[in-house]
Amino acid sequence: MTEILREIGMIARALDSISNIEFKEYDLTKGQYLYLIRICENPGVIQEQIIEMIKVDRSTANRAVQKLVDNGFVEKREDEHNKKIKRLYPTDKGNTIYPFIKNENEYSEKMALKGLAEDEVEIVQKLLQQIRKNVEKDWDFVKKGNKRNY
User: Fold this and answer.
1) Are the CB atoms for 77 and 89 separated by under 8 Å?
2) Sheet containing 74-78: order of strands
3) Which of 58, 46, 34 has its CA nearest to residue 88?
């Protein structure tokens, strides 16, 4: 048995831990930066779209987004056509920290890919995209209340 998913998990947890430590001084914790960067890159996004982008459950997204709102990084605005829909927008505070988060992300990626040739990076990216697509199918299936057969 290969341990590819364990390796991916270790990488993800290590990078998440680094980010949480580095963003703590900005009152961004527990992966909130993931939400903020998506909202900054997609102003007016709705929470359901964020859930799909990050692959988290509704309650996790609710807590993270509400914390961003409470801390002044994000604001919720009613959709002009449907008052039930709340769109998410970065505030000035959120937009101010966005470049720092983006730079940290770019630096982490550069360090993670250090020593790999350009063609190797392309191969890794294509393979990881395929793995993500495979996992997304199961994620969608299980999210809808189904059980996988092992």
Assistant:
1) yes
2) 45-46, 86-90, 74-78
3) 46
Structure token digits, residue 79: 């959709």
Q: Are 40 and 56 in contact (CB under 8 A)?
A: no
Write the single-letter amino acid at 79: D
Q: Which residues of 7-23 are buried (b: 16+ CB within 10 A; e: fewer)?
A: eeeeeeeebeeebeebb
pTM: 0.85
Residue the block writes with tokens 């987004």: 65
CA distance 103 to 119: 23
**Model confidence over 104-141: pLDDT tens digits?**
999 999 999 999 999 999 999 999 999 999 999 999 89
Side-chain half-sphere exposure of 20, counting CA atoms within 13 A? 10
Helix axes of 4-23 and 92-112: crossing angle, nearest 10 degrees: 140
Q: Please report which confidence band the pLDDT of residue 27 belongs to, taking 50, 70 and 90 as the band edges.
A: confident
The terminus-to-terminus CA distance of the chain in angstroms comes to: 15
Query: What is the signed CA dihedral for 143, 14, 9, 56, rounded to 10 degrees?
Result: 10
For residue 90, the 8-state DSSP code is E
